[in-house]
Amino acid sequence: MNSLEEYKRLIEDSITKYSSGTEPENLHNSIRYILNLGGKRIRPILVLMGYGVFNDHVERALHQALAIELFHNFTLIHDDIMDRADLRRGHLTVHKKWSEPTAILSGDLMLIKAYELLCDAPPQLLPPMLQAFNTMATEVCEGQQMDMDFEQRTDVSEEEYIDMIRKKTSVLIGAAIQIGALRAGADASEAGLLYEFGVNIGLAFQMLDDYLDVFGQSEKTGKVEGGDVLNGKKTLLFLHCYRHADEQSKNELLSIYENRTSKSNAEKVLAARELFKVTGSDKYLYKKAEDYYHIGVNLLKSADFQRERIKPLLTLADSLMQREH
Amino acid sequence: MNSLEEYKRLIEDSITKYSSGTEPENLHNSIRYILNLGGKRIRPILVLMGYGVFNDHVERALHQALAIELFHNFTLIHDDIMDRADLRRGHLTVHKKWSEPTAILSGDLMLIKAYELLCDAPPQLLPPMLQAFNTMATEVCEGQQMDMDFEQRTDVSEEEYIDMIRKKTSVLIGAAIQIGALRAGADASEAGLLYEFGVNIGLAFQMLDDYLDVFGQSEKTGKVEGGDVLNGKKTLLFLHCYRHADEQSKNELLSIYENRTSKSNAEKVLAARELFKVTGSDKYLYKKAEDYYHIGVNLLKSADFQRERIKPLLTLADSLMQREH
């Protein structure tokens, strides 16, 4: 069985080989740029691990792994335009370094190339792989639109929020494993179970992310500490706290999130932390992340897979939950 | 054999049936909006006609026809953002009516849905159809980037310009017919020949468009007369004229295209027309359009297809060349 490092090396090699397009320069340079900004490559690794549940020759799923990585980076480029973000992993975003038109177009081309790579497989495997990919891709777009719509609303329910992050981030984690499995010839129910494992781990991962954004040790992240608070991003921490706080705390919370306060950034984050602790929103979110993690892990363990073959998936899921940043 | 009106009705019915998505509202409303702005539906009709060369049951290619129409509208939405266009067919563009983020996202979703519809076909047909679609889609993106790059340059050659419009507009015409043919089970060489017919007709069509923009009877178009001149769009008319004009005419031409003149819009267009006539650029472009048209038509006529089966394609190509607006 391959180690995480071996999986990652396979992915990095194949990205280097792949991202060597030519004309027009602006278009291909920007694609090379975003693909080489680094990152943990969790999603393409999950494709290989999904394949590895059924077959040892994980290198046969490399084009599908690359397809998932290209799709992920397509969403990053377009989301960064929509969110008016200047930086991505500490570097200029594509629309800042080149231009918005080039960023729109590079994203479009990456989506097309994702399909091209996905479909580099035996014809009989294409219908289920395409269906999995199309469903996922549609939901990711819907999730991003929901995220933007929610910014204009103050009455978002927890269920709606969880549905949004499920679509925006978790289904891609699930589909990565599912597509790897389908590429190996898995049947729909086996692949579907791996998808559900991935979606639950993805939800746990996103919730832990939201938790660590406010309560993590920021020196390791490179992110602004409490960026979600300062950007007014209403994660479960906010939604839970707002629902359970008294009137005065509610007002204070809103004044922080809507930037109607004379507090410094650091003071805002500290004040929000206190409010979250008083309502128990920190513990609530952390517990919820753990719950989704356990649902996913139990699903996988109780299925009829060889223990040795699902070990890489369980190890990766575990390592995602162990991080403190 | 179906008439053009019957083909169009089939397409309109299937667009109406298709464009009835639900949540999130902003996303699906914007897609419905652009799909129902009208247009001649030439590209999806060409898919049906390509299918009709081999098989009478053209309704079986309706999802592929819709895929091509969705792809076309995806490029319109994203191009309108890049070109900062406010109007499309006399109505507000999607990014003006909603917002840029929603326009980016609706375009993305339409591209995904295009793949979904394209691949609604027997598995053994998917590899050639996907390859045709991916090659076309890649070139369309490259063509749009070239078009934007050319705006910054004054030394674009005729060959480069023709390569750009081939990629930006003609390959989609070719691929529409090709994909219809492949959907009917045509072999690669038959489908390839129909593609070449389409590309040549597409080039003729685009060149006639550029000609009519300056020399057409504008009351019928709804476009600003001479929009290309006023927007500084350097089509073959400009490139040919600039290469053949004397120094004084060159300067006058540049002053019009770079908006360094006190002339009114109408005066600019009239002056440009005169310059084009002096260098014979009008005749040159019109002749070039006719040449490509004849290359395409001869290719098709000399191939081994039943005359009756290619008649709709020839009739449509002919009608595209007969328009005066």
TrEMBL record, chains A, B:
Q: Which InterPro entries match?
A: Isoprenoid_synthase_dom_sf (IPR008949), Polyprenyl_synt (IPR000092), Polyprenyl_synt_CS (IPR033749)
Does Acetylation appear among the keywords?
no
Q: What is this protein called?
A: Isoprenyl synthetase
UniProt KW keywords: Magnesium, Metal-binding, Transferase
GO MF entries: metal ion binding; prenyltransferase activity
Q: Which family does it belong to?
A: Belongs to the FPP/GGPP synthase family.
GO biological process terms on file: isoprenoid biosynthetic process
Pfam family membership, one? polyprenyl_synt
User: What's the cofactor?
Assistant: Mg(2+)
Tree of life domain: Bacteria
